[in-house]
Design brief:
The chain is 1% helix and 42% strand. By secondary structure, it is an all-beta fold. The chain is globular and about 70 Å long.
Length: 540
C-alpha cells in the first residue's frame, strides 16, 4: 500500500488528511504502519522498533508544537552531545497529605493506610475557573476526592455536597482510575471523563463516568472490555483517539505489561473482547534490576499525554517486591511520534523512589493522569508516594508530591566551550518566527538556514545571526538582514545550529511574535486558554 496524503494549511498549522485506501499520514509526516495498530509482536523484553527513525519522512512538517531533540528524528547530523535530565522534587513535598477523617479509611496489609494520593486519577489546570484541580484516592481504595489550588503548591479540600461536609466526589471502593479534562466534547455535561476500576467489577473492567464540573458525576454510562486493575486511559489529540493501556500479565515472559486499544469516542468502541487487544509495551532489557532484589523489571503502569509535538509517557517501573518495604516503583520517561511505538532515551529514573526510610516517597512512586502541567518556564509533575511500614510490604501513609523540570527539559543537545553544530533534516513550515529553548549563560546559539541544495542562504548566514545568550525557554532568533523567515514559509529548508557552551532543548517556528507553538501543553497551565499553546511564552 502506497502512502498518499494531502497537506492543507489552516491557521498556520499543517494538518494531514488521509485518503481512502491510503496509509494515514500524521501531522509530522510519519505514515502509520499497516495494519494499525501493529499486531505482530509477542510479549518481549526487546526495545520497540521505531518506524519514524527507520524510515523518516523526506521532509518533516514542523507546524505543530515545539520540536524536541529526544531522538534523531529531526537531526541529519550533529557534533553535539545528547543528555537526559531527571525531574527534581519540590522542597515543599508532599503537597497533599491525608489529613481528613475520610482520608484515614482503609488498611494495607492489615496496617493503617491514611491515603490522599493520585493513583493516576488526574491533575489539570482548568482555564474556565483558573484553578489547578486534582482528583485523588481518599482512604486506601475507599473513595475519590477533589482538591483545588491557585498556584499548584497550596491545595485546598473544599466542602462539597456529594457527601456533605467532605471533598469526596465518589464513594465507590476502587483501585486505579483516570480523570480527563476533555474540551473536545460538544456536550458540556461530558466535559470531564472518569475511567475507574471499581472493586465491584467482578469481571474486571473500567466503568466510565461523565461530569460537567468534575464534582457531580453521572452513573456509569458504560463499561469497557476486560482489563487488569492498573489500566489507564489517555486521549491522543494528534489522531483524535481514546487509548486504553490495558494491564495484563504473563508469568512466562515479562510479567506485567500493556495491551493497546483505541476508540474514536467515549464510550464508542470500548467493548473489546478478550484476546482482541494486541501486545503494546512492557519493561525492556535495559531496565536495570535493583542489586538488592535481583528481580527482572516489569511495567506497572503507563500514563501518557500530548506534549508539544510528541506523546509523553511516564513508565512506572516495578523492580520487585521486598518483604520489608513497600514496592520501590519509580518513574521513567518515554516519547512517541506515532502514538504506539515508544522511545526511551534513558532508562535511569526520571522521578525516583527514595531510599531513606521515613520519607514520604520511600515506596511506590506513581504518576498522575495528564502527566504534567506547564507552569511558566517549568513543568509540574504530580506523583504519589508511600511512607511504607518498615519490616512490611504495607503502604503506610500515601500522599501526593510534586516534581518539576525545565520546560522542554527532558533532553538537551550540549555543546562545550569549543562549540559544535547540529543540522536538521529537511523541514517545512507555515510560520515565520524562529524560536529556541536554550541555556547559554557563558556561551551562545546561532542558526543558519540552508536551502534545498544544502547551501547557506545569503540572508540567513550564521555570521549574520544575532546570537541567543543567557538562559531562555523561548528566545526569538533574527539575522542582521532578515528579521523573520517569512520568505521561506512553505519551502523546504534545513536549520544548522551553531552552539558554544550551551544546551539546546527545542526549536520551533511560530506564526506569531509571541512564540505560540500551537502544540499541546499536556494538562494545561496558567495563562493558556486551553490544552494547546496559542498564547506563547507564559513565563514572562
Amino acid at each position: 500500500m502506497k502512502s498518499i496524503a494531502h497537506i492543507v494549511a489552516f491557521l498556520g498549522i499543517v494538518f494531514p488528511l488521509s485518503v481512502a485506501g491510503a496509509a494515514e499520514l500524521l501531522y509530522n509526516g510519519v505514515p502509520l504502519p499497516d495494519p494499525w495498530p501493529p499486531q505482530d509482536r509477542a510479549p518481549t523484553r526487546e526495545p520497540m522498533a521505531l518506524p519514524w527513525l527507520e524510515h523518516p519522512p523526506a521532509v518533516i512538517p514542523i507546524d505543530v508544537g515545539r520540536q524536541l531533540f529526544v531522538d534523531d528524528f529531526l537531526i541529519a547530523e550533529t557534533t553535539l552531545k545528547r543528555v537526559s535530565h531527571p525531574a527534581t522534587y519540590h522542597p515543599a513535598n508532599p503537597v497533599l497529605r491525608p489529613d481528613t477523617p475520610w482520608d484515614q479509611d482503609g488498611t494495607s496489609q492489615s496496617h493503617p493506610a491514611p491515603t490522599a494520593m493520585v493513583f493516576s486519577d488526574g491533575v489539570w489546570y482548568d482555564p474556565a475557573d483558573q484553578l489547578f484541580k486534582m482528583w485523588y484516592m481518599s482512604g486506601y481504595t475507599t473513595a475519590t476526592a477533589y482538591a483545588t489550588s491557585k498556584d499548584g503548591l497550596h491545595w485546598e479540600k473544599p466542602a462539597l455536597d456529594v457527601v456533605p461536609g467532605t471533598n469526596l466526589v465518589q464513594k465507590i471502593v476502587r483501585d486505579s482510575g483516570t480523570v480527563w479534562l476533555d474540551p473536545t466534547d460538544p456536550d458540556p455535561k461530558r466535559r470531564y471523563k472518569m475511567f475507574l476500576y471499581a472493586h465491584h467489577a467482578a469481571k474486571g473492567d473500567l466503568s466510565i463516568y461523565c461530569s460537567p464540573d468534575g464534582i457531580h458525576w453521572s452513573d456509569s454510562i458504560a463499561t469497557t472490555g476486560p482489563v487488569g486493575d492498573r489500566t489507564t486511559v489517555f486521549y491522543n489529540p494528534f489522531r483524535k483517539r481514546w487509548v486504553y493501556g490495558i494491564r495484563d500479565y504473563d508469568h512466562t515472559t515479562i510479567g506485567r505489561f500493556r495491551r493497546y486499544w483505541e476508540s474514536p469516542g467515549v464510550p464508542d468502541g470500548a467493548q473489546w473482547q478478550k484476546g482482541q487487544a494486541p501486545f503494546w509495551v512492557g519493561a525492556d532489557k535495559f531496565d536495570a534490576e535493583r542489586p538488592d532484589l535481583k528481580t527482572p523489571c516489569e511495567l506497572y503502569n503507563l500514563d501518557a499525554v500530548a506534549y508539544e509535538s510528541v506523546l509523553l509517557g511516564l513508565f512506572d517501573i516495578w523492580r520487585g517486591q521486598p518483604q520489608d518495604r513497600a514496592k520501590p516503583n519509580e518513574l521513567c520517561v518515554g516519547f512517541s511520534r506515532d502514538g504506539f511505538h515508544w522511545l526511551r532515551p534513558s532508562h535511569a529514573p526520571f522521578i525516583p523512589v527514595s531510599e531513606q526510610y521515613g520519607d514520604w516517597n520511600w515506596g511506590n512512586v506513581q504518576s498522575a493522569g495528564g502527566c504534567c502541567l506547564v507552569v511558566g518556564d517549568r513543568l509540574y509533575f504530580y506523583v504519589s508516594g508511600r511512607t511504607g511500614v518498615k519490616g512490611s510490604p504495607a503502604s503506610g501513609e500515601s500522599a501526593t508530591g510534586l516534581a518539576t523540570l525545565r520546560r522542554d527539559g527532558f533532553v538537551s543537545m550540549d555543546a562545550d566551550e569549543q562549540g559544535g553544530v547540529l543540522t536538521t533534516r529537511p523541514l517545512r513550515f507555515q510560520g515565520k518566527y524562529l524560536f529556541v529553548n536554550a541555556d547559554a549563560p557563558q556561551g551562545e546559539v546561532r542558526v543558519e538556514v540552508l536551502g534545498e541544495d544544502g547551501r547557506s542562504l545569503p540572508a540567513y548566514a550564521a555570521a549574520d545571526c544575532i546570537p541567543v545568550q543567557g538562559d531562555k525557554t523561548a528566545a526569538r532568533l533574527t539575522w542582521k538582514n532578515a528579521h523573520d523567515l517569512a520568505p521561506l514559509s512553505g519551502k523546504t529548508v534545513q536549520f544548522r545550529f551553531h552552539a558554544r557552551s550551551a544546551k539546546l532543548y527545542a526549536f520551533w517556528v511560530s506564526p506569531e511574535t509571541s512564540g505560540a507553538s500551537h502544540g499541546y501543553v499536556a494538562a494545561g497551565g496558567p495563562g493558556f486558554t486551553g490544552l494547546t499553546d496559542t498564547v506563547g511564552d507564559t513565563s514572562r
